Amino acid sequence: MERYRGAHVLVTGALGFIGSQIARRLVQLGAEVTGIDSSQPGSGANPFNLEGIRDQMRFVPADQRDAEALRELVADQHVIFNLAGQVSHLDSMRDPLTDLELNCRAHLTLLEACRAVNPRARIVFASTRQVYGRPDYVPVDERHPLRPTDVNGIHKLAAEQYHLLYYRVYGIRTTALRLTNTYGPGMLVRTDRQTFLGWFIRQALDGETIRIFGDGTQLRDFTFVDDAVDAFLLAGVTDAVVGDVFNVGGIGPASLYNVARLLVELAGRGGIELVPFPPEKKAIDVGSVYNDDTRLRRATGWTPKVDLREGLTRTLEFYRAHRDHYWPAAAGTA
Amino acid sequence: MERYRGAHVLVTGALGFIGSQIARRLVQLGAEVTGIDSSQPGSGANPFNLEGIRDQMRFVPADQRDAEALRELVADQHVIFNLAGQVSHLDSMRDPLTDLELNCRAHLTLLEACRAVNPRARIVFASTRQVYGRPDYVPVDERHPLRPTDVNGIHKLAAEQYHLLYYRVYGIRTTALRLTNTYGPGMLVRTDRQTFLGWFIRQALDGETIRIFGDGTQLRDFTFVDDAVDAFLLAGVTDAVVGDVFNVGGIGPASLYNVARLLVELAGRGGIELVPFPPEKKAIDVGSVYNDDTRLRRATGWTPKVDLREGLTRTLEFYRAHRDHYWPAAAGTA
Q: Looking at chain B, which residue has its C-alpha nearest residue A90?
């Protein structure tokens, strides 16, 4: 990690959950950090995510589809953490053309900019285990067939393939990390349109009843954001992962019901209810799924350090302290 | 094929090679044919491809990305043959954002239009064996891993996945056909930027030297366009292929050298030269590749009928008669 001291690093999606935490760590490590974000409506972009580090980095409110701006921004970067994207599966089905813009055009534009002015940049792209679709087996390893179950998964897969292609054809040193459920301070908890865990957290803190679709036995694995940041930063300085794709797993698997129960216990409030799947969610549900991340651990030495109890505790503490920045007060809790 | 009589059928990319031949056959079968094409610069769109049937069908010069126009055009169609697309691998690398527009946005727009106003339409999409990339084994079947080697392949795969997704989620009855090298009257022979065989044909007819990259032993299979039209039309009326993807193969495999030799023999002119790969082509070359189309033959009864000698003979005859519509006269041949 010493290699980030003084390094020029660009973070896209820097107002988002994981992007902002990467920027925060990089600032601590003494990197020259530039963050960009276009603050898409409905996205996880939140100015508060960069609270306390804004004067130790450069932030540019750029749209990653702006080719001219991108060429200038990537020109002198040593490492680029490419976290920008639309992450809601449901939104990708309701508005597939916007998903195409944000999850395909934006990344092609970034890669074209690097090809034009900075082919020596090191790029780490945030992909998702969603590219596997409903798994044939668990844990899912990187050889699993790629069968995305929604527009978002199709576009994330295309974007991942762009990154690997630009390595094979142009030698741009890219790596794609297929993330699983990542959680922690800064995640979007305002709506139920992105991660289920963010919504569970919000509901527990508001003393509401967490509704789980199905019987609650669906298994998931979880990466606390500090561990995810470790994975990105290690990938950015490990030659062995260049031009390849790796799963990022974490702690687990745990059932949705048990995660919700732990959350209610730690929050000291909230309840749990099992309800049938609504058709629009059932159509794109993937059942139990969790990642085999053996290859990443071997290649980089990465290992997740924060278990679910500790991670959820730290997350709940964060939102208790800063909830006003993340969601409007519920009636009776203001 | 009787089922096409009186059927309302939309063909996208109707000025292109395969699209126009599908339109021609449908007119013969008594269908009510609408063709659309946006005549993209550099594409295979050629008004002469609809010569002789223009008054027996409706042609609309629409851009498939025009959502409003599309909703009107798809509204009363029973079957849609979705042939529009950018097919040059090299162009997709030089201008990936245009490839994204033509190979992703256009198809999402069509599918969204069907979802909105005509979810009962039957759609057959022209995909490509390029989605497999450099094959692990030949012949390539549909279980082969998907590893496109250029931007065009990435986008064709995404478009194929859109079609299958809209079946799974919305019940729109789609089929994707992964075509191999399709050739015949109406194919683009003007430049070397699309199919190698089109360019070989043009060179043989102009008495030029056909340059083959590598040692000429690379194997390919070939589908004469009449056989490809059969495959599309059968797929459009076969319930067993709904929601699935099928290879289309043909006659072969044959080596590039032997194909060129046959062509020079049939043309009665031209020569052959083996030359080393230029780097930009080597980077996206896939070696020997040909399709296993057992599943399509079983599901639809399709079988290719035209062998390479007959197909090339008919193709050469067509271009001898109509070359003025397909490429500028070479010096000394006018």
A: B169
Chain A residues in contact with B165 (beta carbon < 8 A)? 148-151, 154
Domains of chain B in sequence order: 2-183+222-247 (3.40.50.720), 196-220+252-289+306-325 (3.90.25.10)
Query: Which residues have a Cβ under 8 Å from the Cβ of A102 and sit 6 or more positions away?
Result: A40, A84, A85, A86
A284 touches chain B (CB under 8 A): yes
Q: Tokens representing B322? A: 């109509």
Q: ipTM of this predicted complex? A: 0.93
Is B30 within 8 Å of B6 (Cβ atoms)?
A: yes
pLDDT per residue as tens digits for the range B64-102: 999 999 999 999 999 999 999 999 888 999 999 999 999
Give the number of other CB atoms < 10 A from CB of residue B120: 10
A334/B contact by beta carbon, under 8 A: no
User: CA B131 to CA A146: how far, in whole Å?
Assistant: 12
* Closest alpha carbon within chain B to A284: B169
Contact B291, B129 (CB under 8 A): yes
- At residue A317, the 3 state secondary structure works out as helix
**Residues 6 or more apart whose Cβ sits within 8 Å of residue A249:** A139, A180, A221, A223, A290, A291, A292, A293, A304
Tokens of A241: 């992962």
pTM: predicted TM-score of the whole model, two decimal places: 0.94
Per-residue pLDDT tens for B113-155?
999 999 999 999 999 999 999 999 999 999 999 999 999 999 9
Q: Residue B162's closest chain A neighbor by CA?
A: A151
